[in-house]
Amino acid sequence: MLYIPCPHCGLCNETEFHYGAEAGVAYPDPNALTDSEWAKYLHIRANPKGWFAERWVHFAGCGRWFNLWRNTITHEIGLAYLPFTTQPKAPGNTGQEGSRA
Amino acid sequence: MTNTPDTLPPGKIGRRKAAMLPEQPPQLWRSVKARKSYDVIIVGGGGHGLATAYYLAKNHGLSNIAVLEKGWLAGGNTARNTTIIRSNYLWDESAAIYEHSLKLWETLEEDLGYEMFFSQRGVLTLAHSVSDVRSKRRSFYANALNGIDCEWLTPAEVKKLVPIINISEDVRYPVHGATYQPRGGIAKHDWVAWGYAKAASDLGVDIIQGTEVTGFNIQNHKVQGVQTSQGDIAAGKVALVAAGHSSILANLAGFSIPIQSRPLQALVSPLYEQVLNTVVMSGAVHVYVSQAHKGELVMGAGTDAFNSYAQRGSFHVIEHQLAAALELFPIFSRAKVLRTWGGIVDIAPDASPIIGLTPVENLFINTGWGTGGFKATPGSGWLMAHTIAHGSPHELNRPFALDRFITGHLIDEHGAAGVAH
Ligand SMILES: Cc1cc2nc3c(=O)[nH]c(=O)nc-3n(C[C@H](O)[C@H](O)[C@H](O)COP(=O)(O)OP(=O)(O)OC[C@H]3O[C@@H](n4cnc5c(N)ncnc54)[C@H](O)[C@@H]3O)c2cc1C
Ligand SMILES: [Zn+2]
Question: Model-level pTM?
């Protein structure tokens, strides 16, 4: 079980959260995109081995979405941060940097 | 470990002596050093990679082939799965591809000259709610139209087949019915990998363990070879058959794929008398159970919610699964967990595999089998070999191309649950 630091509620059990995969994927203008660019937005998310900036929602707590650095090899937890704020740097250099944002 | 008062009583279905395992030959495959160059390099020494190599040699007459494996043979998902084999998928494309594989299983042991304990003991898929019944009956009719063996069983018929199951109405997940595929079953997963490795090696394929592919040599969008932890190796064609690590390899080759890698767990009990002679699956509660030929109960769990490459899952996932399993099979409350483990599964947005060409010429990919690709090992290898040899897909894997995510022709096999073994 991961212990996840909700920026609003503090450390809580993973079972109180839902996962939202890659953080920082901006919603594009669908009319401005080709089919393959749209497919990329719709279906392709980063899947790095190492530090990953990802989204979580604290559904059984404050109900809010936030972003989190987490290591996909060690399950180490890094910084949590709010959406639409500047992304903090990936902790350490133990893996690839994760986010496209 | 035999029957003590503390463990399960003898099964009602009849005792079965733990079968003796046949002797292994002194050597299964040749130990070789990588050559400087190959016609085809297969990245990933799991069941799918080994089967691909075997069918390339057997069906297409190629022999200058290497399988490169970063760890040890079948150390990925191939020897970590719960070995459920079936073909009763919903959509025509899936039914066709999985049924092609099931037919290959039916003659595989003779074909490879190697025993794999393939046992067609039937696969039962339970329905627990009104909507579950609707979706399972829909699959049942779809299977019938596709000529796939299938039956619809009432709770009483389920009980007849699986006497230890609880069909009481007063439980959290009552059994409202089930689909049954009599030709489904299980096999011994590590032996499947060894059987393919031996047969491929006998046909001249080089199997090279402890060699990680770390990059690709690509010129003018055409692959020329691979970079590995043991140096560069030239290749006419390269196939990525790396399951949970497919995204990493695709990125190294300069393209991205719609795959997320997640942990999936399983567990096994000590050896008990035979109490279960078919496979029971429940997607709604994430219980997948069979009793292997020596007597161990083999159970699959759900995936963890998050991406991971750690080859281990969370305990609460197992706890949740066992709670549901105990309600279905009260007799299991006396059983013990011997071992739990996890694999990293490659999940596509529509829970269907991706087999075919890539944006790089002569580079092929086979991934996305996720939680349910063991059953596809022979078929996947067969079709991948065809695709590599001809440079274009077989008609059975054409619908499973990478470009379906652009055209929108998804093959949505999520069914009622995110996991389908
Ligand atoms: C717990 C669990 C239960 C499952 N239950 C079932 C089931 O009941 N029925 C079913 O049909 N399916 C099941 N599956 C799914 C099934 O195991 C897989 O879909 C299937 O085994 C995939 O085979 P593969 O050969 O493609 O992958 P793998 O066996 O994972 O092989 C890929 C190989 O590639 C190697 N590799 C990766 N990167 C590199 C690199 N850079 N260089 C060299 N080598 C590399 C890996 O080390 C690995 O050995 C289950 C999976 C798990 C984890
Ligand atoms: Zn919160």
Answer: 0.94
